[in-house]
Design brief:
InterPro entries: PLB. It is a single chain. This protein is mainly α. The protein has a domain at 21-53. It contains two helices and no strands.
């Protein structure tokens, strides 16, 4: 368990050192927002289908 925590911390440290230009960051944020919205919509559709049946 301790080894996993150490690997996770070092991976996070490496990832935070990577420089991301603002345009790429904005694109990633938009992608994440779109992905989240699609998931919410699918979940709502699933609930509606469950309730209607």
């Amino acid at each position: 368990m301790e080894r996993v925590q150490h690997m996770t911390k070092s991976a996070i440290r490496r990832a935070s050192q990577i420089e991301v230009n603002p345009q790429a960051r904005r694109n990633l944020q938009e992608l994440f927002v779109n992905f989240t919205l699609i998931l919410i919509c699918l979940l709502l559709i699933y609930i509606i289908v469950l309730l209607s049946s």
